Amino acid sequence: MTYSESERYWIWLSQLKGMTPRRFYKILAEAGDAENVYRNPFEFKGLFDDKTFEGLKSSISNGEIDTLFEGMEKNGVSAITRLSDLYPERLSHISDPPATLFVKGSTALDADKPFAVVGTRRVSYDGKKAAQEFTRVLGENGVTVISGLARGVDTLAHTSCLDVSGRTIAVLGNGLDSVYPPENEKLAQRIIDCGGSVISELRPDESPARWTFPARNRIIAGLSEGVLVVEGDKKSGSLITAQLALEEGRDVFAIPGSIYNFMAEGPNSLIQNGAYMALSPWDILEAMRWGTRPGGEEKQVKAPELDENEKKIYDLLKNGALSFDELENLTQFSTSSLNSCLTMLVLRSIIIKLPGNLYRLA
User: Is the model's pTM score more than 0.85?
Assistant: First the structure.
Protein backbone atom coordinates (compact mmCIF):
# COMPACT_ATOMS: atom_id res chain seq x y z
CA MET A 1 0.00 0.00 0.00
CA THR A 2 1.32 3.44 -0.92
CA TYR A 3 0.94 6.50 1.27
CA SER A 4 1.12 10.21 0.58
CA GLU A 5 3.68 12.26 2.49
CA SER A 6 0.87 13.75 4.58
CA GLU A 7 -0.34 10.26 5.51
CA ARG A 8 3.15 9.04 6.43
CA TYR A 9 3.69 11.87 8.90
CA TRP A 10 0.11 11.57 10.18
CA ILE A 11 0.60 7.85 10.90
CA TRP A 12 3.98 8.46 12.55
CA LEU A 13 2.72 11.23 14.86
CA SER A 14 -0.50 9.44 15.79
CA GLN A 15 1.49 6.39 16.95
CA LEU A 16 4.00 8.06 19.25
CA LYS A 17 4.17 6.59 22.75
CA GLY A 18 1.78 8.50 25.00
CA MET A 19 -0.21 9.94 22.10
CA THR A 20 -4.01 9.70 22.39
CA PRO A 21 -6.47 10.56 19.59
CA ARG A 22 -7.70 13.68 21.40
CA ARG A 23 -4.16 14.90 22.05
CA PHE A 24 -3.23 14.15 18.44
CA TYR A 25 -6.12 16.18 17.02
CA LYS A 26 -5.32 19.07 19.35
CA ILE A 27 -1.68 19.10 18.24
CA LEU A 28 -2.71 18.85 14.60
CA ALA A 29 -5.04 21.82 14.98
CA GLU A 30 -2.19 23.93 16.37
CA ALA A 31 0.61 22.69 14.10
CA GLY A 32 -1.35 22.60 10.84
CA ASP A 33 -0.08 19.17 9.87
CA ALA A 34 2.09 16.37 11.26
CA GLU A 35 5.03 17.12 8.98
CA ASN A 36 5.44 20.54 10.64
CA VAL A 37 5.90 18.77 13.96
CA TYR A 38 8.49 16.43 12.46
CA ARG A 39 10.44 19.24 10.82
CA ASN A 40 10.21 21.75 13.68
CA PRO A 41 9.64 19.81 16.92
CA PHE A 42 10.88 22.52 19.32
CA GLU A 43 8.43 25.03 17.85
CA PHE A 44 5.60 22.87 19.19
CA LYS A 45 7.21 21.68 22.43
CA GLY A 46 4.53 23.41 24.51
CA LEU A 47 1.88 21.08 23.05
CA PHE A 48 3.52 18.00 24.59
CA ASP A 49 4.14 16.77 28.11
CA ASP A 50 7.82 16.20 28.90
CA LYS A 51 7.76 12.42 28.51
CA THR A 52 5.96 12.46 25.17
CA PHE A 53 8.22 15.20 23.84
CA GLU A 54 11.32 13.18 24.76
CA GLY A 55 9.80 10.26 22.87
CA LEU A 56 9.13 12.55 19.91
CA LYS A 57 12.76 13.70 19.75
CA SER A 58 14.02 10.13 20.09
CA SER A 59 11.69 8.94 17.34
CA ILE A 60 12.92 11.62 14.94
CA SER A 61 16.63 11.09 15.69
CA ASN A 62 16.34 7.29 15.39
CA GLY A 63 14.45 7.36 12.10
CA GLU A 64 11.51 5.48 13.57
CA ILE A 65 9.18 6.66 10.80
CA ASP A 66 11.07 4.47 8.32
CA THR A 67 11.26 1.57 10.77
CA LEU A 68 7.49 1.75 11.29
CA PHE A 69 6.67 1.52 7.58
CA GLU A 70 9.29 -1.14 6.88
CA GLY A 71 7.79 -3.30 9.64
CA MET A 72 4.27 -2.78 8.33
CA GLU A 73 5.28 -3.86 4.83
CA LYS A 74 7.15 -6.90 6.14
CA ASN A 75 4.17 -8.09 8.22
CA GLY A 76 1.42 -7.34 5.69
CA VAL A 77 -0.10 -4.49 7.71
CA SER A 78 -1.85 -1.54 6.07
CA ALA A 79 -2.72 1.77 7.74
CA ILE A 80 -5.88 3.78 7.13
CA THR A 81 -5.97 7.36 8.37
CA ARG A 82 -8.89 9.75 8.65
CA LEU A 83 -7.43 11.40 5.54
CA SER A 84 -8.28 8.27 3.55
CA ASP A 85 -11.48 7.44 1.67
CA LEU A 86 -11.14 3.94 3.14
CA TYR A 87 -11.67 5.21 6.70
CA PRO A 88 -15.09 3.95 7.88
CA GLU A 89 -17.72 6.69 7.86
CA ARG A 90 -19.55 5.37 10.92
CA LEU A 91 -16.38 5.42 13.00
CA SER A 92 -15.47 8.97 11.98
CA HIS A 93 -18.59 10.28 13.74
CA ILE A 94 -17.99 8.84 17.22
CA SER A 95 -16.88 11.18 19.99
CA ASP A 96 -13.28 9.90 20.05
CA PRO A 97 -12.44 8.47 16.60
CA PRO A 98 -9.05 6.77 16.22
CA ALA A 99 -6.65 8.78 14.10
CA THR A 100 -5.22 5.71 12.38
CA LEU A 101 -6.38 2.13 11.94
CA PHE A 102 -3.93 -0.68 11.21
CA VAL A 103 -5.44 -3.48 9.14
CA LYS A 104 -4.74 -7.02 8.03
CA GLY A 105 -7.29 -8.44 5.62
CA SER A 106 -9.64 -7.32 2.89
CA THR A 107 -13.14 -6.68 4.25
CA ALA A 108 -14.19 -3.05 3.80
CA LEU A 109 -14.52 -1.46 7.23
CA ASP A 110 -17.69 0.25 6.02
CA ALA A 111 -19.16 -3.17 5.25
CA ASP A 112 -22.91 -3.66 4.87
CA LYS A 113 -24.97 -4.76 7.87
CA PRO A 114 -22.23 -4.36 10.50
CA PHE A 115 -23.26 -5.77 13.87
CA ALA A 116 -21.26 -6.46 17.04
CA VAL A 117 -21.60 -9.61 19.14
CA VAL A 118 -19.82 -9.43 22.50
CA GLY A 119 -19.90 -11.10 25.89
CA THR A 120 -18.00 -12.74 28.70
CA ARG A 121 -14.81 -14.74 28.40
CA ARG A 122 -16.28 -17.26 30.90
CA VAL A 123 -19.27 -18.26 28.81
CA SER A 124 -21.79 -20.80 30.12
CA TYR A 125 -23.18 -23.77 28.18
CA ASP A 126 -26.37 -21.85 27.34
CA GLY A 127 -24.38 -18.74 26.45
CA LYS A 128 -22.21 -20.78 24.11
CA LYS A 129 -25.28 -22.18 22.34
CA ALA A 130 -26.81 -18.71 22.03
CA ALA A 131 -23.62 -17.10 20.71
CA GLN A 132 -23.24 -19.81 18.09
CA GLU A 133 -26.86 -19.79 16.97
CA PHE A 134 -27.20 -16.02 16.78
CA THR A 135 -23.98 -15.41 14.87
CA ARG A 136 -24.61 -18.34 12.54
CA VAL A 137 -27.98 -16.93 11.50
CA LEU A 138 -26.64 -13.38 11.29
CA GLY A 139 -23.77 -14.58 9.10
CA GLU A 140 -26.11 -16.55 6.86
CA ASN A 141 -28.12 -13.38 6.29
CA GLY A 142 -25.24 -11.22 5.12
CA VAL A 143 -24.44 -9.50 8.42
CA THR A 144 -20.81 -8.55 9.01
CA VAL A 145 -20.15 -9.76 12.57
CA ILE A 146 -17.76 -7.57 14.57
CA SER A 147 -16.14 -8.68 17.82
CA GLY A 148 -12.92 -8.48 19.82
CA LEU A 149 -11.20 -11.88 19.29
CA ALA A 150 -11.21 -12.44 23.06
CA ARG A 151 -11.80 -15.80 24.68
CA GLY A 152 -15.39 -16.93 25.14
CA VAL A 153 -18.22 -15.18 23.33
CA ASP A 154 -15.96 -13.21 20.96
CA THR A 155 -14.22 -16.38 19.75
CA LEU A 156 -17.55 -18.15 19.29
CA ALA A 157 -18.95 -15.19 17.34
CA HIS A 158 -16.06 -15.07 14.87
CA THR A 159 -15.90 -18.87 14.46
CA SER A 160 -19.64 -19.42 13.99
CA CYS A 161 -19.80 -16.65 11.40
CA LEU A 162 -16.86 -18.16 9.47
CA ASP A 163 -18.47 -21.61 9.63
CA VAL A 164 -21.31 -20.34 7.40
CA SER A 165 -18.93 -18.43 5.09
CA GLY A 166 -19.89 -15.10 6.65
CA ARG A 167 -17.84 -11.91 6.96
CA THR A 168 -16.29 -10.96 10.27
CA ILE A 169 -14.02 -8.21 11.61
CA ALA A 170 -11.88 -8.63 14.73
CA VAL A 171 -10.80 -5.54 16.67
CA LEU A 172 -7.72 -6.18 18.81
CA GLY A 173 -6.60 -4.57 22.05
CA ASN A 174 -2.95 -4.84 20.98
CA GLY A 175 -0.85 -4.28 17.86
CA LEU A 176 -1.16 -6.55 14.83
CA ASP A 177 2.36 -8.00 15.04
CA SER A 178 0.98 -10.50 17.55
CA VAL A 179 -2.40 -11.94 18.54
CA TYR A 180 -3.87 -11.87 22.02
CA PRO A 181 -4.92 -14.28 23.36
CA PRO A 182 -2.18 -16.33 21.64
CA GLU A 183 -4.41 -19.39 21.18
CA ASN A 184 -6.49 -17.33 18.73
CA GLU A 185 -3.61 -16.78 16.32
CA LYS A 186 -5.00 -19.42 13.93
CA LEU A 187 -8.48 -17.89 14.19
CA ALA A 188 -7.10 -14.46 13.29
CA GLN A 189 -5.40 -15.94 10.23
CA ARG A 190 -8.60 -17.78 9.29
CA ILE A 191 -10.53 -14.50 9.45
CA ILE A 192 -8.01 -12.92 7.06
CA ASP A 193 -7.90 -15.96 4.72
CA CYS A 194 -11.71 -15.99 4.50
CA GLY A 195 -11.91 -12.35 3.39
CA GLY A 196 -12.38 -10.70 6.77
CA SER A 197 -10.17 -8.21 8.58
CA VAL A 198 -8.22 -7.95 11.82
CA ILE A 199 -7.71 -4.35 12.92
CA SER A 200 -6.26 -2.21 15.71
CA GLU A 201 -5.63 1.46 16.40
CA LEU A 202 -2.39 0.58 18.20
CA ARG A 203 0.99 0.58 16.48
CA PRO A 204 1.78 -2.96 15.26
CA ASP A 205 4.40 -3.72 17.93
CA GLU A 206 2.33 -2.55 20.92
CA SER A 207 1.49 -5.09 23.62
CA PRO A 208 -1.92 -5.38 25.31
CA ALA A 209 -2.50 -3.45 28.54
CA ARG A 210 -5.42 -2.96 30.90
CA TRP A 211 -6.43 0.34 29.26
CA THR A 212 -6.24 -0.92 25.67
CA PHE A 213 -9.34 -3.12 25.90
CA PRO A 214 -11.88 -0.46 26.96
CA ALA A 215 -10.38 1.76 24.23
CA ARG A 216 -10.81 -1.12 21.76
CA ASN A 217 -14.48 -1.46 22.75
CA ARG A 218 -15.38 2.01 21.44
CA ILE A 219 -14.14 0.94 18.00
CA ILE A 220 -16.28 -2.22 18.08
CA ALA A 221 -19.31 -0.07 18.95
CA GLY A 222 -18.40 2.65 16.47
CA LEU A 223 -18.03 0.30 13.50
CA SER A 224 -21.40 -1.34 14.19
CA GLU A 225 -25.00 -0.35 13.67
CA GLY A 226 -26.05 -2.41 16.67
CA VAL A 227 -24.61 -4.53 19.49
CA LEU A 228 -25.71 -7.83 21.02
CA VAL A 229 -24.58 -8.72 24.54
CA VAL A 230 -24.76 -12.48 25.10
CA GLU A 231 -23.49 -12.90 28.68
CA GLY A 232 -21.48 -10.98 31.24
CA ASP A 233 -21.58 -9.79 34.82
CA LYS A 234 -22.22 -6.14 35.68
CA LYS A 235 -18.51 -5.31 35.45
CA SER A 236 -18.00 -7.06 32.12
CA GLY A 237 -16.22 -5.24 29.31
CA SER A 238 -19.18 -6.11 27.08
CA LEU A 239 -21.30 -3.70 29.12
CA ILE A 240 -18.74 -0.98 28.39
CA THR A 241 -19.23 -1.73 24.70
CA ALA A 242 -23.01 -1.58 25.13
CA GLN A 243 -22.84 1.75 26.96
CA LEU A 244 -20.56 3.22 24.31
CA ALA A 245 -22.95 1.99 21.63
CA LEU A 246 -25.88 3.70 23.36
CA GLU A 247 -23.92 6.94 23.63
CA GLU A 248 -23.26 6.81 19.88
CA GLY A 249 -26.92 6.16 19.05
CA ARG A 250 -26.57 2.45 18.22
CA ASP A 251 -29.24 -0.11 19.06
CA VAL A 252 -28.36 -2.48 21.90
CA PHE A 253 -29.80 -5.98 22.23
CA ALA A 254 -29.31 -8.46 25.06
CA ILE A 255 -30.12 -12.12 25.57
CA PRO A 256 -31.90 -12.56 28.93
CA GLY A 257 -30.88 -15.23 31.40
CA SER A 258 -31.76 -16.71 34.76
CA ILE A 259 -31.72 -14.34 37.71
CA TYR A 260 -29.63 -17.00 39.47
CA ASN A 261 -26.89 -16.94 36.82
CA PHE A 262 -24.43 -14.14 37.64
CA MET A 263 -23.29 -14.15 34.00
CA ALA A 264 -26.81 -13.03 33.07
CA GLU A 265 -26.58 -9.97 35.34
CA GLY A 266 -25.22 -7.78 32.56
CA PRO A 267 -27.78 -8.60 29.85
CA ASN A 268 -30.67 -8.57 32.33
CA SER A 269 -29.56 -5.17 33.64
CA LEU A 270 -29.35 -3.80 30.08
CA ILE A 271 -32.89 -5.02 29.32
CA GLN A 272 -34.15 -3.56 32.59
CA ASN A 273 -32.69 -0.22 31.52
CA GLY A 274 -34.09 -0.14 28.00
CA ALA A 275 -32.04 -2.49 25.80
CA TYR A 276 -34.01 -4.68 23.42
CA MET A 277 -34.54 -8.26 24.50
CA ALA A 278 -33.37 -10.75 21.88
CA LEU A 279 -34.93 -14.20 22.10
CA SER A 280 -34.01 -15.11 18.53
CA PRO A 281 -31.55 -13.83 15.93
CA TRP A 282 -34.61 -12.94 13.90
CA ASP A 283 -35.56 -10.37 16.54
CA ILE A 284 -32.35 -8.56 15.56
CA LEU A 285 -32.67 -9.08 11.80
CA GLU A 286 -36.24 -7.81 11.76
CA ALA A 287 -35.53 -4.90 14.08
CA MET A 288 -32.59 -3.80 11.93
CA ARG A 289 -34.73 -4.41 8.80
CA TRP A 290 -32.17 -6.88 7.46
CA GLY A 291 -34.47 -9.88 7.06
CA THR A 292 -37.79 -11.57 7.76
CA ARG A 293 -37.98 -14.74 9.80
CA PRO A 294 -38.86 -17.93 7.87
CA GLY A 295 -42.61 -18.39 7.61
CA GLY A 296 -43.16 -14.83 8.79
CA GLU A 297 -45.24 -13.88 5.76
CA GLU A 298 -47.49 -16.91 6.11
CA LYS A 299 -47.99 -16.57 9.85
CA GLN A 300 -51.60 -15.78 10.63
CA VAL A 301 -52.43 -13.70 13.67
CA LYS A 302 -56.06 -13.68 14.69
CA ALA A 303 -56.91 -10.17 15.82
CA PRO A 304 -59.67 -9.66 18.40
CA GLU A 305 -62.38 -7.17 17.47
CA LEU A 306 -60.40 -4.43 15.78
CA ASP A 307 -62.07 -1.13 15.11
CA GLU A 308 -61.76 0.48 11.68
CA ASN A 309 -58.55 2.41 12.41
CA GLU A 310 -56.87 -0.53 14.16
CA LYS A 311 -57.75 -2.85 11.26
CA LYS A 312 -56.18 -0.43 8.78
CA ILE A 313 -52.91 -0.50 10.76
CA TYR A 314 -53.13 -4.27 11.20
CA ASP A 315 -53.57 -4.87 7.45
CA LEU A 316 -50.62 -2.62 6.60
CA LEU A 317 -48.34 -4.52 9.00
CA LYS A 318 -49.21 -7.87 7.38
CA ASN A 319 -46.60 -7.04 4.75
CA GLY A 320 -43.83 -6.43 7.28
CA ALA A 321 -42.58 -3.94 9.82
CA LEU A 322 -43.23 -0.23 9.25
CA SER A 323 -42.02 2.88 11.02
CA PHE A 324 -44.28 5.38 12.76
CA ASP A 325 -43.67 7.90 9.97
CA GLU A 326 -44.50 5.33 7.30
CA LEU A 327 -47.73 4.38 9.07
CA GLU A 328 -48.65 8.04 9.49
CA ASN A 329 -48.12 8.62 5.78
CA LEU A 330 -50.05 5.50 4.70
CA THR A 331 -52.99 5.89 7.09
CA GLN A 332 -53.21 9.70 7.00
CA PHE A 333 -54.11 9.55 10.70
CA SER A 334 -53.19 12.48 12.90
CA THR A 335 -50.06 11.94 15.01
CA SER A 336 -52.04 11.75 18.25
CA SER A 337 -54.63 9.37 16.77
CA LEU A 338 -51.98 7.04 15.33
CA ASN A 339 -50.01 7.08 18.58
CA SER A 340 -53.14 6.17 20.53
CA CYS A 341 -54.00 3.28 18.19
CA LEU A 342 -50.48 1.89 18.23
CA THR A 343 -50.26 2.09 22.01
CA MET A 344 -53.49 0.13 22.41
CA LEU A 345 -52.42 -2.52 19.89
CA VAL A 346 -49.10 -2.96 21.70
CA LEU A 347 -50.82 -3.22 25.08
CA ARG A 348 -53.17 -5.86 23.67
CA SER A 349 -50.15 -7.80 22.29
CA ILE A 350 -51.44 -7.55 18.73
CA ILE A 351 -48.35 -5.71 17.51
CA ILE A 352 -44.80 -5.29 18.83
CA LYS A 353 -42.73 -2.12 18.96
CA LEU A 354 -39.19 -2.60 17.63
CA PRO A 355 -36.01 -0.50 17.80
CA GLY A 356 -35.98 2.50 15.47
CA ASN A 357 -39.66 3.30 16.15
CA LEU A 358 -40.74 0.32 14.00
CA TYR A 359 -43.85 -1.81 14.47
CA ARG A 360 -44.70 -5.35 13.37
CA LEU A 361 -47.39 -7.95 14.05
CA ALA A 362 -46.87 -9.98 17.19
Answer: no
